[in-house]
Every structure is written in C-alpha cells, then in structure tokens.
Amino acid sequence: MSVKTSTPEQSLVRNFEISYRLCEKIGLNALDRNYRPNWRTVYPGTVNVFALVQLLYLLGTERADLLQFLLILPHFLFTAQGFHKFILCTRRSSKIFALRCKLTEIQALLLETKSSGPVICRTLNISRLLQTLIFVFYLASVVLTILVPTMLWLVIDKKSFMFLFFVPGFDQYSTEGFLVNTILHAVILLAAFHAYTGYECLFLGLIMPVGAYVDAFGNEVQELNSVLSLKERNDPAIRARLNRIVKLHQLMNEYKAMLEELYNVLILSTIGLNYLGIISTIVVILKSNDRMAYIFFALMFEILFRICLMGTIITVKNDQLVGHLYNIEWYQLAPDQAKDLRFMLHQAQNPTSVTIGKYALLNLEGYMSVLKSIYSYVMVLVTVLE
Q1: Which of 223, 231, 238, 228 has the alpha carbon at shortest distance from 324?
Q2: How far apart are CA 357 and CA 170, in angstroms?
Q3: DSSP assignment of 43-55, as one string?
Q4: Is 351 in contact with 321 (CB distance < 8 Å)?
Q5: Nearest to 127 by CA among 231, 188, 212
Q6: What is the mean pLDDT of residues 218-222?
Q7: Buried/exposed 108-135: b ≥16 CB within 10 Å, e otherwise
Q8: Other C-beta atoms within 10 Å of 329: how many?
Q9: Does residue 197 surpass a pLDDT of 60?
Q10: Could you tell me which of 304, 279, 296 has the C-alpha nearest to residue 356?
Q11: CB contact at 8 A, 308 and 362
C-alpha cells in the first residue's frame, strides 16, 4: 500500500492550518485575505476588557499585601499579552497576510528547482508537529484549570477556584455562585485558548519556513555551481541561475524585514511581561503554593523559551545563508556576475534579524541572561517576604 505524501504547497497550507481554524472561530483570522473585525471579534474583545478591568481592580485592592499582589499579577500579565495580540490582529492584519503571501512567493520560486521540494516539506512538517504540541499544551492547561476545582467540589464538596475572575453579586462559596463563576471561567478560557494557541502557532508558522527556505537556497547554489563546472561555458544559463539566487536572497531579506517590523514591539512586551510573570509565580509558589501559579509558570516559561528559540533560528539561518553565498564558485563568474555576488555578500554582513523592540537580538543568549536576572530578583523578593 502506497503512503500518500504532502506536496510542498500542501505543507505550507498545513503549516498555518491550526492558527487559521482557531482564529477563524473567534473572528481574529488575519490569514484571511478579506479579514475585517466582525461580530465574532466582539467575544474575545469583551473577554479581554472584562478580565483586565477586574484584575486592575484586584491589584488596586491588594496593593498593600505584597504576596497577594504577586499572586494576582501573573493573571494580569498574561491577560495583557492577550490584549496586545488582539490589537495586533485587528489593527495590523494586512501585515500578517502580507507575510503569508511573501512566503508563497518565495516558495513558488524555490520549487522551480525540483530538489528543493523534500527539503521544504521536511521543515514544514516539523513546524506542524511543534504547533500540535503547543495546541496540546494549552488545551491541557485549560482542562486542568476547570477540572481541578470541579473535581474538588464533586469529591470533597470544596468550593475553590484556580482563576481569580468572579461574577459580581454571587457568593462563590454557595453552590449557585460556584456554578456561575465556573461558567464564567469556561467562557474566558475558551476565548483565551483560541486566541493564544492560534497566535503562538502563527508566530511559529511564520518563523519555521525561513529555515526551510535557507536550506533550499543551498540547492540553488549547488545548481549554479553545477552549471559553472560544465566543460562548455553557458553564460545565459549561468546568468539565469545567478538571477534566481539574487531574487531569492532579496525576497528573503524583505520577508525578515517585514517580520521584524511587525513583531519587534510585541516581542518586547511579551518578554517583559513573561519576565515579571515568572518572577512573581516563583515567589508565589515558594511562599503560598498556589495551584494556578504552577500553570502560569509553565505557560510563561514555555513562551519565553520558545520565542527566544525562534529568534535563534533566524540568527543561525542568517549565518547559513552567508555560508551558502561563500560556497558559490565566484572565481568562475564573469566580472558583471561577480558584482552581484559581492552585493549579496555585502548585504549579508548586516543581516536582518528579529529583535526585542530593536534593543537587542532575540536569541538563546538573551534567554540565559533573562534567567539569571529572574533568579536574582526572586532571591530579593523571597528575602523581603521572610
């Protein structure tokens, strides 16, 4: 029995499938060419505003109690991330769709070389697998947040919540109040699951193809070198191959510049908010053993690591791209052809990378620095609370 394999075109579509489906259900599908905020967008928007207002109220009322303030803070910081992503989608959806179109353009050009197809499919399939893991991870977090309080109520009749949100006017310790607030939490978590999972998968889906296309770019260089090595020099074929390489290099630079322009501020806020969130969750875990703090710690730690890992992929692939250019047998190029290669090498000396608000490169070195800083602040806060 034959095994049906995906084509590169199908793999690129599947690369965005999870994000497309989840965001479409809540009116935040920026991958749709004709996207506009619609009636479904009201749902995540209302949930975001309600959550932020209630958490600001709680932070204000508990500001005198440092430990209680730190317990509420991760809820607020995580919600603030969702609000920023909501704004990004509704206000800059055309930029997101433009990135998707640019990927299609680059891939179509690469696929004119047959050997590039398997290389592209392999990396895009890895991207799909990673997105599936993100989906499962976020789904498990949502299920635990609802299931644990429900099971405690059913088994030992203990009415407690992991989420802080509440419906005003209902006593959460009464059966009626418990059920009403549980429904509220389910409504909030449903919107959060679709929005966070959709946009985390989207970011990963926009980064991973860069790795695939740089690998396929190496095939283009090999094809050029093959033409250069022919006994009878074929200048039209050499020029055609070199022009393809020049165009691909330019398209990939444009794509990375668009990615940086769209995401650098969001990355800055995401890292800053998760940085504060991880500090507060660790302190809360050490001092009060709050159950929700464990979930927030896992979520924020995973986001911080993954986003820095994605930045590292761009940095590593920039270096590989330079290596591919140096592999071109430049000494066999005509003077006007060598000029194009020099221009590409000049551009490659200052590659476009994803940054943290244009202040620093996004990579694992920065991630390690952040972890060291988190440890220092946690020790200070633990000492203050003793």
Answers
A1: 223
A2: 43
A3: HHHHHHHHHHHHH
A4: yes
A5: 212
A6: 90
A7: ebbeebeebbebbbebbbebbebbeebb
A8: 13
A9: yes
A10: 304
A11: yes
Rg (the chain; Cα; Å): 25
C-beta of residue 239 within 8 angstroms of C-beta of residue 139: no
Amino acid at 309: L
Contact 128, 8 (CB under 8 A): no
Longest dimension (CA), the chain: 88
C-alpha 228/C-alpha 328 separation (Å) is 9
Please report which helix (H) or strand (E) contains residue 354, including its range. Answer: none
Q: Which residue has the higher pLDDT, 172 or 193?
A: 193
Contact 28, 207 (CB under 8 A): no
Residue 201, judged by CB atoms within 10 A of its CB (0-12, 13-18, 19+), counts as: buried
What is d(CA 375, CA 266) in angstroms, rounded to the nearest whole number? 24
Residue 1 pLDDT > 60, yes or no?
no
Task: Return d(Cα 376, Cα 128) in angstroms, integer.
Answer: 37
The Cα 59–Cα 53 span in angstroms is 10
What distance in Å separates the CA atoms of residue 44 and residue 68, rounded to the nearest whole number? 27
The encoded tokens of residue 334 equal 């005509």
What is the residue-wise DSSP string for 70-117? HHHHHHHHHHHHHHHHHHHHHHSHHHHHHHHHHHHHHHHHHTTSTTHH
> Helix 175-228 crosses helix 66-91 at what angle (to 10 degrees)?
50
Give the whole-angstrom CA distance, residue 111 versus residue 124: 14
Q: In whole angstroms, what is the distance from residue 205 CA to residue 124 CA?
A: 8
Residues in the chain: 386
Reading the block at residue 75, the tokens are 């809820």
* Assigned token pair, 285: 């875990």
For the chain, the first-to-last Cα distance in angstroms comes to 67
Q: In the predicted model, what is the mean pLDDT of residues 38-63?
A: 92
Concatenated DSSP letters for 134-169?
Answer: HHHHHHHHHHHHHHHHHHHHHHH-----SS----TT
Cα torsion angle, 172, 176, 179, 180, sign: negative
Residue reference for tokens 């895009």? 124
Provide the whole-model pTM. Answer: 0.91
